[in-house]
Amino acid sequence: MSSDASGASGAPRPARPRSVKRSLASIVLGFETIVVFLAALVFFGLGALPPVFALGGGALLCVIMLATIALLQYQWAYAVGWAIQAIIVLSGFLNPVMFFIGAIFAAMWVYCMVNGSRIDHQKEIA
């Protein structure tokens, strides 16, 4: 049996190399998911929000973040990542410490987007 030109011989195709930007973004969102989970517990424990909103909203945001990690192969998922950063910074209105934590993660996100894109561009040129 001969294989056609499209490579349907059953041999696995080599995987496309994963971009540095995508790798860095998934790392930041992964660690941020842990922090958001813990922040939801803090909001619940301090009574900053009703339990449904503190735990439910925190769980929903964690699920959105995990889904975003899986969807980073699409360009629009990075816009979702930016929105997540804004939501976490704005959660500082519920607990002022979150302004600081959100700013740290937003700065890491900016660093990953800028330098990850630069490294990926340099890899394309080479």
What tags apply to this protein structure?
126 residues; 72% helix
Layout of helices and strands:
Elements (H helix, E strand, L loop, with lengths): L19 H27 L4 H20 L5 H15 L6 H29 L1
Oligomeric status: single chain
Specify Rg, calculated over alpha carbons. 19 Å
Strand-residue proportion = under 5%
Order of helical and strand elements: HHHH
The shape is elongated
Q: Pick out the low-confidence regions.
A: none
Mean pLDDT: 90
Roughly how many Å apart are the termini? 39 Å
The overall strand count is: 0
The helix content, as a percent range, equals over 70%
Q: How many individual helices?
A: 4
The major sheet is characterized as: none
Structural class: mainly alpha
Descriptive report:
The longest helix has 29 residues. The radius of gyration is 19 Å and the shape is elongated. The chain is built from four helices and no strands. The chain is mainly alpha-helical and 126 residues long.
Short overview:
It contains 4 helices and no strands. With 126 residues, it is mainly alpha-helical.
